[in-house]
Design brief:
The chain is of the alpha/beta class. About 65% of the residues lie in helices and about 10% in strands.
Length: about 600
């Protein structure tokens, strides 16, 4: 990307970021007024202090010359000192007000972006999650947004105040002494050149830092979830090495970015001190010659510090803003990612399907240029049990994912009761399905709440009946608080089979017209599998069901068996029909029962 494109990208990111603040115009208006008043007071205070000090110096000299005691009264310096104190107090009040409101604005923006991302994640296709690690997505929702908020409530505010203070202070400094101001500007010009060079480098380092944070978070999250497998295969050292490598990569990126962010401040302060020395020598000479008063000289030094410090802060905050810009860019990249195809404006409504499901010449590929499935056609009549079998990676789960519209077909169509699934809303379609996956998922909550996930308004009696049907009621009652026992998000206090039984109970509870079982009994023992099989047979009675299974003994009673290989259905028919063909299904079946 050339420099022009980078600049345009940065400008569009900044404009879009500020576009997010349109709902906070009242707060921003008050912040702007506070900034204006604060800057005005910051510029006026040294000017007024020059008058006060000159008046004070003249009063001291007069008392010295007349050999009378010097005293401060309301008429003699009291009024002026009180006014100066009030001005400094008001300066503090408006600084506090702008800081408080800007923090409110920044955190409100953070909340708004988090909400947008939360809604965005619900609209993203599964392809997005297949291509991105969970840790990297989490880093965009947490680390990137926090950096944006931190810089907005500190960096941006200081930068605006710094610019206004610098401009106002320089005008007054030129009014007091053009030569002294030019000397100061010479040193500051060198500082600005240094800042510009460093800020360009810092943006690149900031982007690299956020990328390494996402990579590290992804690896840690992945290894945390697979910690048992890592231990089982004695891969602790290898996983530690990979985490260490990612950590080192992040450390190097952080070190470089932090160095560039912080190294410029001491250098600019050094140049400021040198400028102060040069100005002090010339200003002292001017005082001795009588061309500058004591009050004006001290006021000039106030302006020097008031201008030099914001310049130092500006250089620091420009670098910090580069980091926030990189984070904002990553955030907007996520918000701009391609979404699922929108639901139709006038969708077809299917309250409760009869269960007639058909694939019509369906083709699909995760990459449109490389199709996994080609010309898939079959029909499931109401109440039929359809078994999908084949080797790992044959496309069995992909088939039901297409049925649920987790992915969109490239060609052909899928209908349910004669209605094209693409003509329905996704939520309307999925209300007709109950699904039990091989990988169980339980959330932090009670056992009852986890079962009721498929029907939030279910009564306790309905939950218990579903648990009994799934053969899990007895186990639940042996837990410390029964159905009110709290589970963590990994349900570490349950076995894999118990977790799967609870997810099966969800399907019993919602009582769907179509059931999908993706290796639903893979984690239970043979005896429990037989019991669940009896309950499932009762549940599937009168309902269309799709069963993905590796153990062919569980699907011999299926009305239709689809045997898949490399994404295509190479055989379909009943168990007896496929055995009679003596093809791929028969070979697999007999291999399991030799």
């Amino acid at each position: 990307m050339n420099q022009t494109m980078k600049r345009k990208s940065s400008q569009s990111t900044v404009l879009r970021l500020f576009g997010q603040l349109k709902g906070q115009r009242v707060r921003l208006t008050v912040v702007a007024l506070s900034i204006v008043i604060y800057i005005g007071l910051s510029i006026y205070n040294p000017m007024y202090s020059a008058l006060v000090i000159d008046h004070l110096w003249q009063s001291i000299q007069a008392a010295w010359n007349s050999n009378t005691p010097f005293a401060i009264s309301w008429s003699n310096m009291g009024r002026e000192l009180t006014q100066l104190t009030i001005q400094y107090f008001l300066t503090w009040i408006f600084y506090y007000l702008q800081s408080y409101l800007m923090a409110n604005v920044a955190e409100s923006l953070n909340l708004e972006l988090r909400n947008q991302i939360a809604h965005k994640l619900n609209r993203l296709p599964l392809r997005f999650f297949d291509q991105n690690k969970a840790g990297e997505i989490l880093s965009r929702v947490t680390s990137d947004l926090d950096k944006i908020a931190d810089v907005l409530q500190t960096g941006l505010l200081k930068l605006i105040v710094a610019i206004g203070t610098i401009i106002g202070s320089l005008i007054v400094m030129f009014y007091y002494s053009v030569p002294l101001t030019l000397i100061f500007l010479l040193f500051m010009f060198v500082s600005m050149i240094i800042t510009r060079i460093v800020s360009k480098k810092n943006l690149q380092c900031a982007i690299q830092r956020q990328e390494t944070i996402g990579e590290l978070t992804g690896i840690v999250e992945e290894y945390y979830n697979g910690r048992n497998v890592i231990k089982a295969y004695n891969h602790e050292e290898e996983s530690l090495e990979q985490v260490t490598a990612a950590t080192e990569k992040n450390r190097a990126a952080n070190q470089k970015a932090d160095f560039l962010t912080n190294c410029v401040n001491p250098l600019i302060r050094l140049l400021t001190r040198l400028a102060n020395v040069a100005i002090a020598i010339i200003a002292g000479k001017a005082m001795l010659e009588g061309s500058m008063s004591v009050g004006v000289v001290q006021a000039f030094f106030q302006y020097v510090n008031q201008t030099a410090e914001p310049l130092t802060e500006a250089s620091f905050m420009i670098n910090s803003l580069q980091s926030a810009l990189a984070s904002a860019r990553r955030t907007f990249e996520l918000l701009d990612d391609e979404e699922e195809i929108p639901d139709p404006l006038k969708p077809a409504v299917l309250e409760r399907a009869k269960g007639n499901i058909a694939f019509h010449h369906v083709s699909f590929g995760y990459n449109p240029d490389r199709l996994l499935m080609k010309d898939i056609s079959f029909e499931a009549k109401p109440g039929q049990k359809i078994a999908v079998v084949g080797s790992t990676g044959a496309g069995k789960t992909t088939l039901v994912n297409l049925l649920m519209r987790f992915y969109e077909v490239n060609k052909g169509s899928i209908t349910i009761d004669g209605i094209h699934t693409a003509q329905m809303t996704r939520s309307g379609l999925r209300r007709n399905f109950g699904m039990v996956l091989q990988d169980t998922w339980l959330f932090s909550g009670t056992v009852a709440e986890n079962i009721a996930y498929s029907k939030p308004d279910a009564t306790r009696e309905e939950i218990i009946e579903a648990a009994k049907a799934a053969k899990v009621d007895y186990f639940i009652r042996t837990m410390p608080q029964g159905y009110d026992t709290m589970l963590d998000n990994e349900a570490a206090n349950l076995s894999a089979g118990q977790r799967q039984l609870i997810t099966i109970a969800r399907v019993f509870l919602c009582n769907p017209p179509v059931i999908i079982l993706d290796e639903a009994t893979s984690s239970v023992d043979t005896r429990t599998e037989v019991e669940i099989g009896k309950a499932m047979k009762k549940l599937m009675s009168g309902r269309t069901s799709f069963v993905i299974a590796h153990r062919l003994s569980t699907i011999r009673d299926a009305d239709t068996i689809l045997f898949m290989e490399q994404g295509n259905i190479i055989e379909q028919g009943s168990h007896k029909e496929l055995l009679a063909k003596k093809g791929a299904y028969a070979a697999l079946y007999y291999s399991q029962f030799e």
